[in-house]
Amino acid sequence: MTLLRSISRGTRRGAMALMAATMLVAPGVGAQNLPDFTDMVRENSPAVVNISTTQAQPEGRARMPDVPGMPDPEDLPEGHPFRDFMDRFMDDEGPEQAPPRRDARSLGSGFIISEDGYILTNNHVVEDASEIIVRLNDRRQMTAELVGADDRADLALLKVDGEDMPTVETGQSSEVEVGEWVLAIGAPFGFEYSVTAGIISAKQRSLPMENYIPFLQTDVAINPGNSGGPLFNLDGEVIGVNSHIYSRSGGFQGISFAIPIELAMDVADQLRDGGEVSRAWLGVVIQDVTRDLAESFGMDRPEGALIAQVLPDSPAAAAGIEPGDVVLEFDGNDVATSGALPPIVGQATVGSTVPVVVMRDGERQTLEVTLAELPDDAGQRGGGSPQTEPGAFEELGLMLQPLTAERRDALGLEPDVDGLVVAGVDGGPAAEAGIEPGDVIARVNRSPVEGVEAFREIIAGMESGRRVPLLVLRDGSQRFLALRIP
């Protein structure tokens, strides 16, 4: 199974770094045209650090060191002499001379961003650490203090005591072009100050569970231990913080991701000034605009972020944003896909009022939204009134039932949720649209569903062959599906 992993959590060997890039040269291109990284590495290595941490283990039975061939006492039968001996001397209530508990250590990388000793790294490198040791290029070791961490961005700011420390120069990741050469310095698998190079493969990547970060995708060889290390451009400027790999094995397989340096430095500044990070919040649930949905909304092509749900008491609700709106621009920034919207919102200023351009009923509208601070947890529930009539729609392959109080309870819905329950799907347009039994159809073509007969009238009034957007509640969230009218 393919997994998205934090780099320092991988367990297997990594692949070799870009051998093909240095051996395979296009016809007519000489080796002298390949970049020379030697000066850049010499100048920036002193500001790159290796990080080791200690996490105290839970209290309990002490463990013997791992020795090849030595059995685990717990694997031996009761009464075995070796087990009896270890139980007597290693148990929690045994003699005080029992060997001390072994702490867990992790290895990662980081880089110094200020002469007075502030260091930027990944949060997962230092998370839950009882002690953080920073090792410099000149072999000095220093104990670091955790200034603050941001789990959403997977970034942490450390501080060591020092003056006139070597620092990196930061650049602009927004100015980096796809195909541009980049270089990473870190400690993959504990091999200190290793250097790997590659190119920018893509920009503005949105990853699962981390959609507030517009990652840089690269083919630079990144492996466990590179976490938190810098990604440089050819000018020797840091443009990203190496953070994740996409891998089936836990080692590098050609795809790695870095946090853009502008976002990382903003997080670092907030952690240094206040110890926590504040982000703007719009208060919507979004989804991609597929070709079928674009057709159903009267759009020329799929683009933008489709609003599937507007959270109650949110900035979006106050501004009049509605489910079915397609966000095309946010504060002057084009929104090409749904994944592009969260990073733009997250980097906006809390409390600011920004223009949001949406497509509604085939026309562009501009709404003014005053952004709030992103809460730790935003509820995702809708609203409406109950229904009473059952109904079957054979031409759609759809069986609908009223949303009674009992069905609301069974589906885990709030009492004021409105719509029709999908009791069955028997092929046809409903199956093509992705409708599933248990879904609650809340809106049809932006109109609230006020009963089976109302649903029948809406469908009967639609032109044959066109696609109609349905707002569906499923597993506590809302989404739009495009239903073809037969």
What can you tell me about this protein's structure?
With 486 residues, the protein is α+β, with helices and mostly antiparallel strands. It is 16% helix and 35% strand. β11 and β12 (210-218) form a beta hairpin. Mean pLDDT is 81; it is low at 9-30, 60-70, 92-98 and 378-390.
User: Radius of gyration, Cα only, in angstroms?
Assistant: 28 Å
Give average pLDDT, whole number: 81
Percent of residues in helices comes to: 10-25%
Any low-confidence stretches, pLDDT <50, length ≥5?
9-30, 60-70, 92-98, 378-390
| Biggest sheet statistics | 7 strands, antiparallel
The SS-based structural class is: alpha+beta
Beta-strand percent range: 25-35%
How many strands in all?
30
| Head-to-tail CA distance between termini | 39 Å
What is the overall number of helices?
A: 11
Shape: elongated
Main β-sheet, spatial strand arrangement? 6-5-2-3-4-8-7
State the main characteristics.
486 residues; alpha+beta; seven-stranded antiparallel β-sheet; 11 helices; 30 strands
Helices and strands in order, then pairings?
Layout: E1 3-6, H1 19-23, H2 38-44, E2 48-55, H3 81-90, E3 104-112, E4 118-121, H4 123-126, E5 131-135, E6 141-143, E7 145-150, E8 155-159, E9 169-170, E10 181-186, E11 194-207, E12 210-218, E13 230-232, E14 237-247, E15 256-260, H5 261-274, E16 280-281, E17 284-288, H6 291-296, E18 305-310, H7 315-319, E19 326-330, E20 333-334, H8 341-346, E21 353-360, E22 363-370, E23 372-373, E24 391-393, E25 398-402, H9 405-411, E26 420-425, H10 428-433, E27 440-444, E28 447-448, H11 452-460, E29 467-474, E30 477-484
Parallel strand pairs: 9-14
Antiparallel strand pairs: 1-14, 2-3, 2-5, 3-4, 4-8, 5-6, 7-8, 10-11, 10-13, 11-12, 12-15, 13-14, 14-15, 16-23, 17-18, 18-19, 19-20, 19-21, 21-22, 24-25, 25-26, 26-27, 27-28, 27-29, 29-30
